[in-house]
Specification:
single chain, 206 residues, alpha/beta, Rossmann fold, 42% helix
C-alpha cells in the first residue's frame, strides 16, 4: 500500500532524527528517553533508591531511564494497557490503571511505600480529529493527576506530558493546587512543532 505524503514525511524525519539514532546507539527503546534525561538533569527528579511510578510506560523508554538511576536499591512500578518487555529494576503491570483490579495490583506492588515520583508520558491513540484528540489527552493527564493525589508521598514530585490546547491552562492551575511549585518544560528532544510540554510539579501537598 502506498504511503500518504504525511506518513512518508514522518518516516523520513524519524529515520534521520538524531534522537532516534542516539536511542539505538544507547540501547533505549524510544527517543522519548532523552526527554526524561533532560528533565532529570534540570530538575533533579530521580535519585538512587527511589520508588518511581511510570504511568503509560510502554514501550519502556522512561522506565529504562528511571530504572538505571534508581538502581538495585530502588524500584520502578510501571503500568500500561499495552504490553512491555522486561526492564531491569522495573515491575510492570499491564492494564488500565483506573480499573479497580489493576489499581489494586499497583497498590500491592507498592506495599507500605508511597512513590517518591510519578512520571507520565501518556498520549492517546490519535484519531486525526484535533478536538477529540485534545479531549482524550486531557482526560488521560487528569487520570494521572488523580493517581498522584491518591498514592504519591507527601512532598513527592509529579511529571506529566500535556498537549497545549483546550483544557490545558485549567489543568495547569489544578496541578498548582496540589503542589508547592510547578514548572513548564520543553525538552530539546521534543519536536518544535509538537504542542507537547512537560509539567514538573514538586512538593506534593498530600
Amino acid at each position: 500500500m502506498a504511503r500518504s505524503k504525511s506518513s512518508h514525511r514522518w518516516m523520513q524525519e524519524h529515520v534521520s532524527d538524531p534522537y532516534v539514532k542516539q536511542a539505538q546507539k544507547d540501547g533505549y527503546r524510544a527517543r522519548s528517553s532523552y526527554k526524561l534525561i533532560e528533565l532529570n538533569e534540570k530538575d533533579r527528579l530521580i535519585r538512587p533508591g527511589m520508588l518511581v511510578m511510570d504511568l503509560g510506560s510502554a514501550p519502556g523508554g522512561w522506565s529504562q531511564v528511571a530504572g538505571r538511576i534508581v538502581g538495585e536499591k530502588g524500584r520502578v512500578i510501571a503500568t500500561d494497557i499495552l504490553p512491555m518487555d522486561h526492564v531491569h529494576n522495573v515491575d510492570f503491570i499491564q492494564g488500565d490503571f483506573t480499573d479497580e483490579a489493576v489499581f489494586n495490583q499497583i497498590l500491592e506492588a507498592l506495599g507500605e511505600r508511597k512513590p517518591d515520583l510519578i512520571i507520565s508520558d501518556i498520549a492517546p491513540n490519535i484519531s486525526g480529529i484535533a478536538s477529540a484528540d485534545q479531549a482524550s489527552s486531557m482526560y488521560l493527564v487528569e487520570l494521572a493527576l488523580d493517581m498522584a493525589r491518591k498514592v504519591l508521598k507527601p512532598k513527592g514530585n509529579f511529571v506529566a506530558k500535556v498537549f497545549q490546547g483546550s483544557g490545558s491552562e485549567s489543568y495547569i492551575k489544578e496541578v498548582r493546587t496540589s503542589f508547592d511549585k510547578v514548572s513548564i518544560r520543553k525538552p530539546a528532544a521534543s519536536r518544535s512543532r509538537s504542542r507537547e510540554i512537560y509539567l514538573v510539579a514538586k512538593g506534593f501537598k498530600g
